[in-house]
Amino acid sequence: MISGSSAVDESALTGESIPVAKQAGDKVYSATINKAGSFHFEAQRIGEDTTLAQIIRLVEEASSSKAPIARMADQISGIFVPVVIAIALVSTIVWLLLGYSFEFALTIGIAILVISCPCALGLATPVAIMVGTGQGALHGILIKSAEALETAHNLDTVVLDKTGTITEGKPQVTDVLPISGVHQERLLTIAASLEKPSEHPLAEAIVNAAVNRELQLHTAHDFLAIPGKGVQAKIEEQLYLAGNISFMKEKGVQLDHFEQEADRLAEQGKTPMYFATPHEVIGVIAVADVVKPTSKQAITNLKKLGVDVVMLTGDNKRTAEAIRTELDIDTVIAEVLPEDKEREVRNLQEQGKIVAMVGDGVNDAPALARAHVGIAIGAGTDVAIESADIVLMRNSLLDVVTAIQLSKATIRNIKQNLFWAFFYNTLGIPLAAGLFFPLFGWKLNPMYAAAAMSLSSIFVVTNALRLRRFRPNL
């Protein structure tokens, strides 16, 4: 920035929900929004060199590096089928050598091949996955690929973006602290009337709080915004000021005990705003990006599943630490840029972790693509949704827990199907091979072998349909 000053919304890149004050000499980035004030800047990077272009490149690189998951059924069939063919050939030759007719020996070989046909093995995985993804959709979880559903059951680390994922993504009023003798409604009315002409997100949060309480606002006259500091205007012929501590000290306002109150609020990750006359503070209003009601329960449930929870955010360390303490998150990494998020996910993968990334913004897209399973919040950006493997339509972190539990249930069902298909066929092979013929005269007709083989397929499909009874344990 060459000259001027303003407050810039950088949430698209950093996830920081509060606009950042910018002065001459500071850097501004493409894909960010100027919220207040004006300035001149010099473009130092254009085209493919911009931050936004780098994000797109990171998404493409991360997506192309994903390795396909080998299917368990393919591995079993790759061994089972050649072994069965060999058994059928050997059995046919043995019975011929024992002096039995060619018809008898051929019937034995055909019965072996028919009863051990790996139809059930082939159905075991896709039918269960089909039912599993259908159940996911019923619970508001859109699973884009079978690989994502398979991988989710092995997750041991979930990386969470903060803004819009753990939190609501929009600043809201959390505390209204008036001076003695002034009611909360009076302070909020003055504050909202003063801030109504402003375009700043913090001002919008205060106005919304007043509207929700159905307070009658006044008209502000001689409104003046000072970028990066605050605003001033006359309300009912009285001049009022609103802004940060530097603005109050610049105007010579007596802060009294409110400076300590503001420090306490800031330690909680909130943004305090002073409201004053030219001589004294009349109160402090705190604004913060509040935590979603379901986030704490979701994080607790993830821990119960044995999953490490990591919060990755572009917010400042103080805000991030306040959220970590409130939600008892294992690890927090703050003040990270988009390329840093992708790198942090890659570092976890290099440590042998199976990582899921949960996010909602453009800045999360590279990390979503890099993770073993990318999970996007349905209310997020199109770029995030496109980069993810799973989309949560209900905007709740509890659905991350549901997705993992559904994956575990699906994989458990697949293993049951594979076991019974393999076990059932294996049990039928000795009978079809005629091992009991010399002792009991038992010989399996190929028609009955076909019926038995069909029953194994019916069993596998029926077992897979049990997934329709899946209910998340939240």
List the helices and strands and how they pair.
Elements: E1 3-9, H1 11-14, E2 20-22, E3 33-40, H2 51-64, H3 72-97, H4 102-115, H5 119-138, E4 141-143, H6 146-152, E5 157-161, H7 162-166, E6 167-178, H8 184-195, H9 201-212, E7 221-226, E8 230-235, E9 238-243, H10 245-250, H11 258-267, E10 271-276, E11 281-291, H12 295-304, E12 308-312, H13 317-327, E13 331-333, H14 338-350, E14 355-359, H15 365-370, E15 373-377, H16 382-387, E16 390-392, H17 398-432, H18 437-440, H19 446-465
Parallel strand pairs: 5-12, 5-14, 12-13, 14-15, 15-16
Antiparallel strand pairs: 1-2, 1-3, 4-16, 6-11, 7-8, 8-9, 9-10, 10-11
Question: Would you kindly provide a written description of the structure presented here, covering whatever features stand out?
Answer:
The chain has 474 residues and is of the alpha/beta class. The chain has helices at residues 11-14, 51-64, 72-97, 102-115, 119-138, 146-152, 162-166, 184-195, 201-212, 245-250, 258-267, 295-304, 317-327, 338-350, 365-370, 382-387, 398-432, 437-440, 446-465; strands at 3-9, 20-22, 33-40, 141-143, 157-161, 167-178, 221-226, 230-235, 238-243, 271-276, 281-291, 308-312, 331-333, 355-359, 373-377, 390-392. The strands form three sheets. It has a seven-stranded mixed sheet with strand order 4-16-15-14-5-12-13, with helices on both faces. It has a six-stranded antiparallel sheet with strand order 6-11-10-9-8-7. A three-stranded antiparallel sheet has the order 2-1-3, with no helix packed on it. α3 (72-97) runs antiparallel to α4 (102-115), α4 runs parallel beside α19 and α5 (119-138) runs parallel beside α19. The longest helix has 35 residues, at 398-432. The chain is elongated. The model is unreliable at 62-70 (pLDDT under 50).
